[in-house]
């Protein structure tokens, strides 16, 4: 019933910038938290950033000061602005959201979008 679709990934040079988007669709009554996670090859999935329905934010230490998370409630979309990118940021980035529908409350995941930082 609910889908999350990420977009905006790609190849960028070190020091460059990229903005990721994740749009939620379906029979959505409300969205609580919206997260970004990432997973590099051979590594465990790690938390990147979160934004709540009350616009509170938190970031992993590794991206603090470089990444900014935001949301557009009217569009059910969360964004991740990534600046000063470095090779260590290379990973598949996943969005995650806590969503209430007419039938239940659940945590949903997108399929992910690849971000590659390389010269």
Please give a structural write-up.
By secondary structure, the protein is mostly beta strands. It is 0% helix and 59% strand. It contains no helices and eleven strands. Strands 2, 4, 5, 6, 9, 10 and 11 form a seven-stranded mixed beta sheet that branches. The protein starts with a strand and ends with a strand. The model has no long low-confidence stretch (mean pLDDT 96).
Our count of helices gives 0
Assembly state here? single chain
Mean pLDDT: 96
Proportion of helical residues: under 10%
Brief descriptors of the model:
single chain; 119 residues; mainly beta; 7-stranded mixed sheet; 4-stranded antiparallel sheet; 0% helix; 59% strand
Would you summarize the structure shown here?
With 119 residues, this protein is mostly beta strands.
Helices, strands, pairings?
Elements: E1 3-7, E2 10-12, E3 18-25, E4 28-39, E5 46-51, E6 57-59, E7 67-72, E8 77-82, E9 91-101, E10 105-109, E11 113-117
């Amino acid at each position: 019933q609910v889908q999350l679709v990420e977009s905006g990934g790609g190849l960028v040079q070190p020091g460059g910038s990229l903005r990721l988007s994740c749009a939620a669709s379906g029979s959505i009554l409300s969205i609580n938290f919206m997260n970004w996670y990432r997973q590099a090859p051979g590594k465990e999935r790690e938390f990147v950033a979160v934004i709540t329905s009350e616009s509170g934010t938190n970031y992993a230490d590794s991206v603090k000061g470089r990444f900014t998370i935001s949301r557009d409630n009217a569009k059910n979309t969360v964004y991740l602005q990534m600046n000063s990118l470095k090779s260590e940021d290379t990973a598949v980035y996943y969005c995650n959201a806590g969503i209430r529908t007419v039938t239940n409350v659940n945590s949903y995941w997108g399929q992910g979008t690849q971000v590659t930082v390389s010269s």
